[in-house]
């Protein structure tokens, strides 16, 4: 596609490579309040994930496989926030929603990368909990540093691979004169609706690949946590049982939030949901879930709370005992 222009197959195809994002908000009173709320949640999400990353890096008690994987989850969540919300906010403040071809491609690529990587990472985090609860004596061997690096590398590389394939295929479709994307960022399902070509076969392949990309990790998660739940219920110590259940319930909450939104967007055919529903679900997993994840882990994990108290005590924000 030379000089960032589209190949023209029909006279009604546009030669411009720019897209226009419809946006999520208008400049009415209620939407100004909603924009302020989005800005507050965005700031909370960045701060929450940054604090969690800082605590994991600085507190030696958090230098464990579980928290190493959790730090990667926070990195992915920061990426979700930075790829979508700043552009949406800039378009809202400038009163226009144009995005270049390169910008649209980058948004789509990085969102796909982070989405697939997070799905794989969550499934491998469930394996970490399975080993910790069901095979605690073998945990240092089964989750040694080399294994953790392999787990993280697998999640990131799978994201890069899927994102490269899906983005390149989507952007090679011809697009008609209307380059108005009925969405607040460039996401694959919304962009396909603008194509002049018949994309039904590709959309079917997306649904099939969605089964592999989403349901296979989800089946691993379900299997792992079913074994974990059985083991937790058989524990004799109430304190140990409570600690294991609290940690695993945090993971299950995050999994439910992420996979629920992803399955709606990528496994349910586009004809069965409206652009308004797409916007709400996309806002949920690009803003709400990344903000909730560090809160879920920090509020429900005693080690994280203790590390935060320690840091605040050193900084003089809490009275010394």
Automatic annotation (TrEMBL):
GO MF terms, alphabetically ordered: G protein-coupled receptor activity; olfactory receptor activity
UniProtKB keywords: Cell membrane, G-protein coupled receptor, Membrane, Olfaction, Receptor, Sensory transduction, Transducer, Transmembrane, Transmembrane helix
Subcellular location: Cell membrane
Membrane topology summary: Multi-pass membrane protein
InterPro entries in the record: GPCR_Rhodpsn, GPCR_Rhodpsn_7TM, Olfact_rcpt
A GO cellular component entry from the record: plasma membrane
Transmembrane segments: 32-55, 67-85, 105-127, 147-165, 204-223, 244-268, 280-299
Domain (G-protein coupled receptors family 1 profile): residue spans on this chain: 48-297
PROSITE patterns: G_PROTEIN_RECEP_F1_1, G_PROTEIN_RECEP_F1_2
Coarse class of the protein's main subcellular location: membrane
Family classification: Belongs to the G-protein coupled receptor 1 family.
Functional description taken from the UniProt entry: Putative odorant or sperm cell receptor.
Protein name: Olfactory receptor
């Amino acid at each position: 596609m030379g000089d960032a222009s589209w190949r023209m197959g029909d006279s009604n195809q546009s030669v411009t490579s720019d897209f226009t994002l419809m946006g999520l908000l208008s400049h009415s009173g209620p939407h100004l309040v909603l924009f302020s709320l989005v800005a507050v949640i965005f700031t909370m999400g960045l701060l929450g994930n940054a604090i969690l990353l800082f605590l994991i890096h600085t507190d030696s008690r958090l230098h464990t496989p579980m928290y190493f994987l959790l730090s990667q989850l926070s990195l992915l969540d920061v990426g979700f926030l930075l790829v979508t919300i700043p552009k949406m906010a800039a378009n809202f403040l400038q009163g226009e929603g144009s995005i270049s071809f390169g910008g649209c491609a980058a948004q789509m690529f990085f969102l796909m990368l982070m989405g697939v990587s997070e799905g794989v990472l969550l499934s491998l985090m469930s394996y970490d909990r399975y080993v910790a609860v069901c095979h605690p004596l073998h945990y240092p061997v089964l989750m040694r540093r080399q294994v953790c690096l392999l787990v993280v590398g697998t999640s990131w590389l799978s994201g890069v691979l899927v994102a490269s394939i899906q983005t390149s295929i989507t952007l090679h479709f011809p697009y008609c004169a209307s380059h108005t994307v009925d969405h607040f960022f460039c996401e694959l399902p919304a962009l396909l609706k603008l194509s002049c070509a018949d994309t039904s076969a590709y959309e079917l392949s997306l649904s099939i690949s969605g089964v592999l990309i989403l349901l296979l990790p989800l089946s691993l998660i379900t299997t792992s946590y079913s074994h974990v739940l059985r083991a937790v219920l058989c524990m004799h110590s109430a304190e140990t049982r409570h600690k294991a259940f609290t940690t695993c319930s945090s993971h299950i909450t995050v999994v439910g939030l992420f996979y629920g939104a992803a399955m709606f967007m990528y496994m349910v055919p586009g004809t069965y949901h409206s652009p308004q529903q797409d916007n709400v679900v996309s806002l949920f997993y690009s803003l709400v879930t990344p903000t909730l994840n560090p809160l879920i882990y920090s509020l429900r994990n005693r080690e994280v709370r203790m590390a935060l108290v320690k840091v605040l005590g050193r900084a003089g924000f809490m009275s010394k005992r």
